[in-house]
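Suppose a classmate hands you a notebook page containing two proteins, each written out with its sequence and a corresponding row of structure tokens. How would you begin to make sense of it? This section walks through that situation. The first entry is reproduced here exactly as it would appear on such a page.
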Amino acid sequence: MKRPNVLNLTCPAIPVVRIGFVGLGNRGILALERYMHLEGIEVKALCDLRKENIERAERILQESGRPKAENYSEEGMWRRMCKCKEIDLVYICTDWLTHTEIAVYALQQGRHVALEVPAAMSVADCWRLVDTAEETRRHCMMLENCCYDAFALTTLNMVQQGVLGEITHAEGAYIHDLRKHYFADEKAGGYHNHWIKLYSQQHTGNPYPTHGLGPVCQWMNIHRGDRMEYLVSMSSRQAGLSAYAGQVFGASSEEAAQNYEMGDVNTTLIHTAKGRTILLQYDVTTPRPYSRHQTVCGTKGFMQKYPVPCLMLDKYGKEPLSGEQFERMMEQYKHPFTAVIGEEARRKNMPNEMNYIMDYRLIHCLRNGLPLDQDVYDAAEWSCITELSERSVRQGSIPVEIPDFTRGDWKKR
């Protein structure tokens, strides 16, 4: 028997959201700092294998005048934390490969879950998240902050108001030169136990699709009237990490001799049920300027954020809007989240307003018993591209079907 879906899921309001943080490395500690600026929350638990990270988190709580939280620093103690009945939300900032295991267990204990990107690294784990969220009727939100980027939100507002006409194509990406981080010590900005480097030695495809894909799927109403149907994916050969290691450590070094499966640049094309197309790219090992593309094509207009913000509309002619005209349009269609919550972030001197908007919205919805901006189907659909892109690459870029995680209910929305 089919379980009821959790589209537009609402749960009883939680006036004060009690949070347990799992993973207090680079990303987790920044999240904790942001939460010190939010009302209606209590940090009840801190969980990390490294005691120095917990000590740093404790100082943040103390300096913010917050009560001391319970500490969980032993291997596997996150399970004990998830069982704690004084926690409403488990906030997961561990490495990619542990996201699903912790999230599923937390949901099974009756907790709501917010987990970093990607939510899962395999299609099977995507289904585990969906099935568990449906069984437990608890929120499971992937923390895709790029959906709250000011330009992405303005684009969403313009798409929803029909300014760009019918949307037929969009592009997203994660292009970010991370070469030095692959080899750096954790204290110098590297990854714990070099887990991302190890992953690149064993896998190919696009392992980090959600930053580029999240805004695009919102523009296209994915699982809200359309769905991603199939993809084809192709990767270039690997050269970037080896060349970088040779320059830094020497051509005969162990680092330079290491084999990597991950190609330097992956390009994935996605086709939707309504005939739209999506171009998705991943490149973290070439000296290329940062970009998420954020490009959308409609029958009446075109928008892109990178490399230079651009807006073209038929009614204004064949040249991109510029100067005051461009600024007026961006102001006219500024999304309410940016206008209100983003402005609050700026008043508080928050370093990245889209992270603050994301956290604010999550807590606001939980406190008021509202559906979340992103649901478990978003988490599954955007994350499953990790395995499916690799599957396509390894089989000569053949088309690969994308599962319908809503089991047909996308047609009803």
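The notebook's second entry, a different protein, reads as follows.
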Amino acid sequence: MSKEKHINNTPHCTARISAIKDAMEILSGKWKFHILGTLIEGGKMRFMDLLREVDGIAAKMLSKELQDMEMNHLITRIVLNTKPVTVEYEITEYGKTLSPIIDEIAKWGAAYRSSLYHTR
């Protein structure tokens, strides 16, 4: 005889869990927060500038992550009429709403790292 779920079966919890899953799916991966933070701090940036700023990322991975974030309306891609073609990326207004979340995650990460080194 199994027990029924009581906490996570409520409409409130079900909606929260779905929202968290959506957010984690859009923001998951090693590079997205780094790219978003770079665009929030740096403003409009060209592909090669982003490649230089995001230490360790490969061009192919940067391209894929930028496409994903553009599809999810977190950044915009601007193609300039130059020869050769120049492409710039910019954080959208909706993407900017992630700034306080990124700040809080950074604070939490610093506190966590500190707690690991100070508890030994």
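A careful reader of the second entry would note: Residues 99-118 form the longest helix (20 residues).
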